[in-house]
Amino acid sequence: MAVLSYRSRSEVIEQLQADTFDLVIIGGGITGAGLAVQAAASGMKTALLEMQDFSEGTSSRSTKLVHGGLRYLKQFDVEVVSETVQERAVVQGIAPHIPKPDPMLLPLYDEPGASFSQLELKVAMDLYDRLAGVEETDFANKLLSREEVIERQPNLAKENLIGGGFYLDYRNNDARLVIENIKQAHEDGAAVLSRAKVTGFEYDNQQRIQSVIVKDMLNQESFKVKSQLVINATGPWSDTIRALDTEVESTPQMRPTKGVHLVVDSKKLPVNSPIYFDSGEGDKRMVFVLPRETKTYFGTTDTDYDGDLKHPQVSLHDVEYLLEIVNRRFPEAKITIDDIEASWAGLRPLISGNSGSDYNGGHNGALSDESFDELALLFTEYNEGRVPRVEVEKGIRDANRNNAESGNDPSAISRGSDLSVSETGLLTLAGGKITDYRKMAEGAMKVIIDTLNKKTDKEFTLIDSKAYQVSGGHFDKTRVDESIQEFAKLYEEAGLNSEEADYLANLYGSNAERVLQYLDQAKEYADKLSLPVKDAISLLYAIHEEANLTSEDFFLRRTNYMLFRSDEMHSLVEPVQAIITEELGLSSEESERQAQELEESMSEHALKDLK
User: Fold this and answer.
1) What pLDDT does 516 receive?
2) Peptide bond preceding 300: is omega within 30 degrees of 0, i.e. cis?
3) For the segment 50-80, what is each residue's pLDDT rounded down to a tens digit?
4) Does residue 17 sit in the same domain as residue 95?
5) Fewer beta carbons below 10 Å: N end or C end of the chain?
6) How far apart are alpha carbons 222 and 144 in whole angstroms?
7) Least confident range of 166-170, 226-230, 303-307, 311-315
8) Whole domain around residue 563: which residue ranges?
9) Cα(528)–Cα(541) distance, rounded to whole angstroms?
């Protein structure tokens, strides 16, 4: 099988043209990547096509959490939170080198529009811990007094602060999660191709889709890929792909919203843990402030979006909104636009009729004060052993029913995914969030397998995707820290220092030995071009085994340099482009074009035009 490199691109295209596939997946974000893993592991002849770099469209632009959904417990959407925290644990198990526990502080302020009172927060956190199975562990929640919140985070605003909570959440590396799924699918036999745009379909004499028409975005040439089934997993582009299905009429179903995040140096805004708080604007939004490496980033906005899906941008209004909130909560920070080192904007692929996103926006479906007080009393009585669990469950059902009857169905907020099938056989898997990607894929795979087993003489069986680890994650999920230390030791024994070894071990997990195959060549480049060995080896691995084509691919999606190490990045720009040019045999014109694109991307992420 060809390696996952642009050196083998022509071989992949030949394979795509020559074979008839069981399943073609359109979209190389987290949804498509999750589908590809399960399809390829189930023995399907699988193809995945992505019009940009893998994860470039949406899945590299999230808040970078595997979020547990504590907010949903304000409306007692227990089923959704239960599914979310269970699925979070599954994702941590199948990619144990990526999601990491990172408990979150939630300060409470006595102000209009507050999401939680102290009682509400305690009830929500206790239920959250029970659903997540962490009640008797080091990750169990803590209800904090005002003084304890200040002790944990002294630079928080003191005015109207009444207390807070501390509960389990997980940080994530979204683009790495995508590429590790893509690599696993590739290792299991899937033909995966980025920068390949689906532009149309061909039909058989029953008006069923029999092939997709693809444009190679590098040379603008088109080709066809035959397939028994096609699934559209393009997130915000779902309606665009459905519109290409010309044999049926489709009604737009997506309602994308834009989220924005801004990055400053941690010296400007030091935080000791992730923090999640009400905006204070009375708009029912909550904002994250999160430490990452030597930086602090914060967001998110949540505004309806009808612009260019490929290129959402941070506006001055976005910046002013977030700075107003963060400076209010951290009055000593006095952050200005000139302090922003990096930023990103991304789209959430919401489905029309959904009242809000993962985190914020829209009507939050909150229960009435009366309903909440009744449920809080039930939980108190249950914890004291005075009422049985069945009474609590009945109370939750009744409250949700009353809420739905009032037009505030909480399930419309949090259950955000949808699987549909057109008359031509095109499947569309839309909506959802990163935490749910595996479960969404599993649901779609049940339909796909049933359809293919009836349509062909093959017999496919669904894999146990809860236990199917992805590339880099093939180690004991109960020994994450110890395993990462063992991988780091391999790098140290090869001559890297401890800091470099830790960086690579956390980035690549169980792929350490594969990464180290490039060490000798990396040392040569490091000496010749004056860059650290860890960056040279990381780049070589990305080029030859992670379909890295451009400097932007490397700095923004194979690593987080452009977002969280921008001050280190400048000295790497020229040597990285030189290595890419040499390893992929780029023309001087193509190399210069990539360098120019990187410069434009760096400028945009640093908000130079707004500044």
Assistant:
1) 98
2) yes
3) 999 999 999 999 999 998 888 777 666 777 7
4) yes
5) C
6) 60
7) 303-307
8) 517-605
9) 18
